[in-house]
Design a protein that fits this description.
It is a single chain. The protein is an alpha/beta fold. It has four domains: 126 residues, Rossmann fold (3-Layer(aba) Sandwich), CATH 3.40.50; 95 residues, Beta-Lactamase (2-Layer Sandwich), CATH 3.30.450.20; 74 residues; 160 residues, Histidine kinase-like ATPase, C-terminal domain (Heat Shock Protein 90), CATH 3.30.565. The strands form four sheets. A five-stranded parallel sheet has the order 2-1-3-4-5, sandwiched between helices. A five-stranded antiparallel sheet has the order 7-6-10-9-8, with helices on both faces. The longest helix is centred in the middle third of the chain and has 47 residues. The structure holds adenosine-5'-triphosphate and magnesium ion. Adenosine-5'-triphosphate binds next to helix 11 and helix 14.
Length: 525
């Protein structure tokens, strides 16, 4: 071997690029001062920048270990009061990755193998002490790269956990599809929504695409463009409306499309609120129209009424034309009553409000209501124990109760029980927000009329309060009963809530602001 070429055993490797340049702290367990000096000189001759702490007693060794910051432990194999393998054990306990090198003249091959098995990093025979520098460097490098690897793994695991947290925290469903539009992954929201479709992996993505033909995912896969659609799906919480969006799944490094991501958003609640908004806007415009017509029409009717009264006075009773004039009067009276109902619906009536107790109001109507509905029906009352006080127009509120009771009667052709109840309740902000307009927070008196009749199908429910909407046969209903209720209750600053089940009956509940509650601002006031 050429003298100028250092043997691999003795070559001093350059520091790794980026390797930290700092003083090594070496803890040397050695009872022989001569051997300790030898090691020190050997490392110095290798230009190794290090601080060597030499100890010979177990207690000192353990104390130094406990102080920390030890980069390498060099230990004799057999010491008078300490066994090298015990030192190794303590070192491993203190720091599993601290390099540990045996330096011994007496170790022997078998023991050396055993020492490595027990976790020693290396061993150097005293007669080959020149190897020590290299052994120390290698051990430090190995420990350093193990540390870097461990840190990188920790960072990777943290990143992975973070992404998993994000994935599982998204309240919308996420479905990842491969290039064959098969499901490869879903987030926990999907499991909560569709537990009966689990496991989803491997199933076709069309399960969550409107129409069931995978159309939007297929479009996105083909064109690389986002697509969106709406569909109705059965979930663990019942039937729901969903907006499904599909986005291309792209490989970050190449931009190549690997599949499709479906984003499944439950819009049932938004949809219901939107419907409610449409509904109240519709009622608002019908109200304006009806109110305008009724107002002008009423003026015309006043003229007809006035002139027919003049005619009635002028034409003698024995004149056959007198009866004709009376017919004009009767028809005009009916028309006036109708326009009054329309005015009530459009909240254009002049109210005469007083402080009143709903319990008393309903109680006073009892006899009249019973006569109105007939013997086939029983009225059951359930009044709130405290007076249910509101500020309202007695006649108008009586009209509301009457119309609701008549409708309840008409919904039970074979007779039955009609339950009228009053309650006071506090509507909290979250409930009001959840229910949407016209619900609002505050203290209210509720009056409910419950029947066990036909219930109301969805198509009727959507048009319930429209003036002239009726399902009754011609001549039986004008379709103004509920629009009058709607208008009167709104003019009092309240609203009407309907719960119904087809074939089981309906409950109409009116909410009126409890006495002392601010009426709402704006058009509903
Ligand atoms: N309690 C109820 N149960 C089932 N359906 C009802 C109930 N109340 C109202 N409806 C439905 O709503 C429709 C409209 O009711 P509304 O009171 O406005 O008009 P109407 O009862 O048909 O006629 P009227 O002007 O004589 O009251 C009814 O025709 C009926 O189909
Ligand atoms: Mg009616």
């Amino acid at each position: 071997m050429n003298e100028s070429t250092p043997s691999p055993e003795t070559a001093v490797p350059d520091p790794l690029p980026g390797e930290r340049l700092r003083r090594l702290k070496i803890l040397h367990l050695e009872d022989s001062p001569v051997d300790a000096l030898l090691v020190q000189e050997m490392l110095a001759s290798e230009n190794m920048d290090c601080e060597i702490i030499v100890v010979s007693e177990p207690a000192d060794f353990e104390r130094e270990l406990a102080r920390g910051g030890v980069d390498v432990v060099i230990s004799d194999y057999s010491l008078p009061r300490y066994c090298g393998t015990d030192a190794l054990k303590r070192t491993r306990e203190a720091g599993p990755e601290t390099p540990f090198i045996f330096v011994s003249g007496s170790i022997g091959e078998e023991r050396a193998v055993e020492a490595v098995r027990l976790g020693a990093t290396d061993y150097v025979m005293k007669e080959h002490l020149r190897r020590l520098g290299l052994a120390v460097r290698r051990a430090v490098e190995a420990a350093e790269s193990a540390r870097r690897r461990r840190e990188a793994e920790t960072r990777l695991a943290e990143e992975r956990n973070f992404l998993a947290d994000v994935f599982s925290s998204v309240q919308d469903g996420i479905v990842v599809l491969d290039a064959d539009l098969k499901i490869v992954q879903t987030n926990p929201t999907m499991e909560k929504l569709f537990p009966d479709r689990m496991p989803l992996a491997g199933k076709p993505g069309s399960l969550f695409c409107p129409g069931g033909d995978g159309s939007i995912a297929a479009t996105t896969l083909r064109d690389g463009c986002p697509a969106q659609s709406v569909c109705t799906m059965e979930t663990a919480e019942g039937k729901g409306e969903f907006s499904v969006y599909s986005y291309p799944l792209l490989e970050r490094s190449t931009g190549r499309q690997k599949g499709v991501i479906l984003y499944v958003r439950n819009v049932t609640h938004e949809h219901a609120l939107q419907q409610q908004l449409f509904q109240s806007q519709k009622m608002e415009s019908i109200g304006k129209l009806a109110g305008g017509v009724a107002h002008d029409f009423n003026n015309i009717l006043q003229a007809i009424m006035g002139f027919s009264e003049i005619l009635e006075g002028e034409i003698p009773e024995d004149d056959p034309r007198h009866a004709d004039v009376l017919e004009i009067r009767k028809a005009t009276d009916r028309a006036v009553a109708l326009t009054r109902q329309l005015l009530a619906f459009s909240r254009k009536q002049v109210l005469n409000p007083v402080d009143l107790d709903m319990n008393g109001l309903v109680g006073n109507m009892g006899g009249m209501l019973q006569r109105l509905i007939g013997a086939n029906f029983q009225l059951r009352y359930d009044f709130d124990s405290a007076p249910a006080r509101v500020h309202g127009d007695t006649g108008q509120i009586e009209q509301v109760v009457l119309n609701l009771v008549v409708n309840a009667r008409d919904a039970m052709p074979k007779g039955g029980e009609i339950a009228i109840a009053t309650r006071q309740r506090e509507v909290e902000e979250p409930e009001a927000a959840g229910r949407g307009a016209p619900w609002r927070a505050g203290r209210f008196v509720c009056l409910s009329v419950k029947d066990t009749g036909t219930g109301i199908p969805p198509d009727v429910l959507a048009r319930l309060f429209e003036p002239f909407f009726t399902t009754k046969e011609k001549g039986k209903g004008t379709g103004l009963g509920l629009s009058t209720v709607y208008g009167i209750v709104q003019q009092h600053g309240g609203w009407v809530d309907v719960e119904t089940q087809e074939g089981r009956g309906s409950t109409f509940t009116i909410y009126l602001p409890a006495l002392g509650q601010e009426p709402p601002k704006g058009p509903a006031a």
